[in-house]
């Protein structure tokens, strides 16, 4: 269903607003990681409890990203973009003024609602931009996720040193307020709408299996992987996942159309996203720790939080450059080629870290390779999913792809945590072999993503599909040459 036409804003203004929102969300994904000990001390809590500052955000974003994307497909992407940005702003305000860990965790849950910014951005780009500009815009917006993650690691230390950790939330709050106001005034209403109601039952099932899985994964190293709590959560996640798929397949108004998820391009790209997310988020989590490890441990460089961020700045610049160039490279070589190349470059870069990490320049060179890989692969995955689904399902499809990448990141971080901390020195730092094995695991995972990427068919779907098993799905596709 198409909304009434109205006077459209210049797409470049729309794009600037969208990029500001994506940047604010991506900053909040990474800025908190390096300063968790500072937050722990400031709020008078312990390490196990403060870890929920990350876990709560991860859970909330995973649950709300596809749901907000689906609601945007139905009621309008512009108005849901304003809602998502407003949630980011409110959550940032609560986190900035939090004087206890309970309010901080609640604030991070509210911030996670802002995960809907990502699928809404991709949907608005597809609705509003000239066709020849869509791939480049999606590439740049996707790369901002990697860029924002890197910038967060870079600026966290200087912000805390110069001001306090509270400003890690004040800054994104200002950004999101500006973006929300600009979205309300300058981003036009969506011309594409999906009819039907929001299936609350399947939304609850989706939320339930995601929460069970991610709590088990994120807390496994603290509770014990063989503990009854963790095993029980994994069992519950498996049962709830099967129930959710069954319920969606039988629903006249599914939250996530299972026929869409079975499109060959969609499910193969989602599998690449799972593997790629595992490598990328684990890299962001553990490289700063490696750099900050004192040389007395037999490895590491003993740098401060601020200096470790600066050493990762070239990686951030490389991600931005890759995102800017992604549109032109995609037009010439295709999104599939860029995704496979990005995954292969990730494998080579993490392999380089595995065998050579004794000098600062070796780490910097490897991280520049990772930055280029992240920028290209993020752009390619989003473009492939957008091209493969009907326009009316862009939000939920890209939301699920983002969500699956996040789940992969949680699993990757948990696995690498277990590998790195398997052997601890008397000083309390992991053995160097732990990091070596961890980097090797990431190289294998990235190589797997590249191999799966070779199986991705490049498909364009130009039809409008109304979700539901009773509707005739016009999913006839043509494979690009």
TrEMBL record:
Segments forming domain Major facilitator superfamily (MFS) profile: 14-465
Superkingdom of the organism of origin: Bacteria
UniProt entry keywords in alphabetical sequence: Membrane, Transmembrane, Transmembrane helix, Transport
InterPro entries (UniProt xref): MFS, MFS_dom, MFS_trans_sf
Lipid bilayer topology: Multi-pass membrane protein
Compartments it resides in: Cell membrane
Family annotation (Pfam families): MFS_1 (PF07690)
Transmembrane segments: 12-29, 49-68, 80-99, 105-125, 134-155, 167-186, 198-218, 230-247, 267-287, 299-325, 337-357, 363-386, 407-425, 437-459
PANTHER family, per the entry: MAJOR FACILITATOR SUPERFAMILY MULTIDRUG TRANSPORTER MFSC
Protein name as it appears in the record: MFS transporter
């Amino acid at each position: 269903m198409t909304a009434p036409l109205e006077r459209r804003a210049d797409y470049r203004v729309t794009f600037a607003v969208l990029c500001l929102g994506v940047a604010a969300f991506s900053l909040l994904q990474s800025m908190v990681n390096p300063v968790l000990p500072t937050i722990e001390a400031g709020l008078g809590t312990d390490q196990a409890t403060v870890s929920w500052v990350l876990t709560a955000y991860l859970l909330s974003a995973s649950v709300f990203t596809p749901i907000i994307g689906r609601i945007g497909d139905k009621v309008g992407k512009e108005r849901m973009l304003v809602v998502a940005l407003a949630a980011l702003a409110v959550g940032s305000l609560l986190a900035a003024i939090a004087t206890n860990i309970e309010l901080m965790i609640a604030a991070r849950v509210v911030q996670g609602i802002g995960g809907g910014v990502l699928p809404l951005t991709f949907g608005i780009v597809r609705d509003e931009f000239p066709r020849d500009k869509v791939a480049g815009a999606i590439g740049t917006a996707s790369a901002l996720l990697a860029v924002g993650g890197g910038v967060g690691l870079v600026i966290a230390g200087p912000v805390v040193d110069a001001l306090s950790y509270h400003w890690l939330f004040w800054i994104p709050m200002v950004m999101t307020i500006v973006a929300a106001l600009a979205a309300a005034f300058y981003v036009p209403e969506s011309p594409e709408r999906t009819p039907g109601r929001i299936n609350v039952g399947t939304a609850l099932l989706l939320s339930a299996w995601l929460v069970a899985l991610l709590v088990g994964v994120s807390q496994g190293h603290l509770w014990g992987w063989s503990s009854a709590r963790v095993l029980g959560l994994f069992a519950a996640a498996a049962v709830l996942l099967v129930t959710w798929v069954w319920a969606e397949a039988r629903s006249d108004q599914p939250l996530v159309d299972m026929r869409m998820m079975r499109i060959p391009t969609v499910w193969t790209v989602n599998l690449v996203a799972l593997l790629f997310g595992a490598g990328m988020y684990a890299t962001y989590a553990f490289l700063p720790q490696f750099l900050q490890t004192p040389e007395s441990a037999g490895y590491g460089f003993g740098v401060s939080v601020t200096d470790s961020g600066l050493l990762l700045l070239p990686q951030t610049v490389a991600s931005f450059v890759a995102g800017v160039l992604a549109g032109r490279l995609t037009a010439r070589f295709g999104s599939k080629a860029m995704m496979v190349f990005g995954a292969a470059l990730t494998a080579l870069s993490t392999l380089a870290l595995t065998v050579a990490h004794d000098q600062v320049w070796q780490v910097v060179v490897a991280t520049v390779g990772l930055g280029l890989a992240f920028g290209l692969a993020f752009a390619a995955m989003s473009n492939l999913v957008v091209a493969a689904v009907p326009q009316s399902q862009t939000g939920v499809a890209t939301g699920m792809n983002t969500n699956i990448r996040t789940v992969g990141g949680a699993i990757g971080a948990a696995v690498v945590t277990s590998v790195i901390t398997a052997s601890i020195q008397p000083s309390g730092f992991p053995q160097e072999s732990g990091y070596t094995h961890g980097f090797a695991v990431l190289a294998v995972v990235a190589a797997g993503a590249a191999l799966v990427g070779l199986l991705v068919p490049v498909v364009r779907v130009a039809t409008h599909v109304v979700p539901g098993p009773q509707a005739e799905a016009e999913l006839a596709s043509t494979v690009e040459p």
